[in-house]
Specification:
The complex is a heterodimer. Chain A is an all-alpha fold. Chain A is built from 12 helices and no strands. Chain B is 47% helix and 10% strand. Chain B has 15 helices and 8 strands. In chain B, strands 2-1-3-4 form a 4-stranded parallel beta sheet. In chain B, strands 6-5-7-8 form a 4-stranded parallel beta sheet, with helices on both faces. In chain B, helix 2 crosses helix 3. The longest helix of chain B has 18 residues. The chains are: A mainly alpha, B alpha/beta. Chains A and B meet through helix 6, helix 7, helix 8, helix 9 and helix 11 of A and helix 2, helix 3 and helix 10 of B.
Chain lengths: 200, 283
Amino acid sequence: MPTTFAAPLEPSFSLAERLAGLTSVSACYQCKKCSAGCPLTFAMDFYPDQVIRLALLGQEAQVLGCRTIWVCSSCETCTTRCPNNIDIAGVMDWLKEEAIRSGQASPQPGVTGFHQTFLDTVRLAGGRLSEPLLLGLYQLRRGGTLEKIKSGALVEDLRMAWELARRRRLVPRLPHRLKGAKEIKDIFKKSHLQATQEKP
Amino acid sequence: VNVSYYPGCSLEGTAIDYAASIGGVSSLLDLTLTELDDWNCCGATAAHSTNHELSLALPARNLALAEAAGRDVVVPCALCFNRLKVAEKALKGPEGAHLGIPYGGDIKIWDLLDYLTQEAYLKELAPKVVQPLTGLKAVGYYGCMVARPPAITDKQDAENPQNLERLLQVLGAEPLDWSFKTDCCGAGLAVARPDIIDTLVQRLYERALRAGADCFVVSCQMCQANLDMPQKRISKQFGQDYYLPVFYFTELIGLALGHPDVKKWLAGHLVDPLPLLERQGLI
């Protein structure tokens, strides 16, 4: 009878070392208080304590490719309650940024695409967010319009947009051009450069 | 008192009703909110999720503007407040020099609810109440970002804030105790994962009802949107006819102090609060 064994785990401390500038994941003693208080666990593949454990063990592919980092709502409950002061929500952010930088395909393309479209909108609009532009661009970028029409989701979206528009809460306007538009442009340029470079 | 005011992007858009009520309330008090000239987006969740550098540099520019204006800055949006506080800590710490934005750190960053519930304002408010909100059973819902994490927000009572309740008492309403006042509504996942919002928010409805509440009172426009906008959808999905209006605390100040525009502000809601207020004889 063939016996299968899980591949032996090969721990690597390089990920924990790279995270050290942010927080010390090695301080985790697995009390799981982060996961106990996390309101989003129902939508996650790994619990927050497991992400910290996997990061500590250097399981880079697993933590960069997991759904958890993208469905985390950044409510900061874990970071607030960690008895060892591990910035768990900060680790989630670090992993998201690193996942994008390393070209890892997101298991939650809708969430990742929303963040990216949000920032593109702020940049395009010259420094402040235009909500109508964000919603329009996001719909275009995400695609799946045909499925949304079929499922009735698009009608729901449009109904909501109309409800907001008639209350003057969703009004397309020309973007307000800031005096500091050039500064904003430079901030985006500089930070984009930083984000595409490998982290120390 | 004259303070700087950083409204944030959504108060020019989907939360324009919140902005109107804030303007209305400040006109009733000894308070001048001077909008920070040339402010920019704080980067919100999108920036801190995908680009650390950007998530500091965008709010840092606003702090530099606020410092140049020379007054404390008051922020109505919970997330903007949080991002400005994160940038404040970064600018004062080792990352500060690297950001290349001059900031001495001599001004204070306030979230609007904290600012308006200082003892002095509560004392100023009390005698101005012309329409006590008698019988209005409300749960205060603070959400996440004004309080957490305390190392950033400098709040002592992150797990159980009390200032909304204190304010509601001054206004004559009946604030109810519940354990979910700082639970998450799902915030920025509303567009990409509305199903997550539905799960989280339906729990909040159930818990609020169990506490005996007729309504929510909030200080964050993202919380307001997530509790108010999908209420019909959630009702349908869970086979329950939820009716829980979601007030901004500023709207209730306006109502209690007799501001003439209250009905206009409330017309921005998707869950119409008027039936509740009429039932209680408050409007």
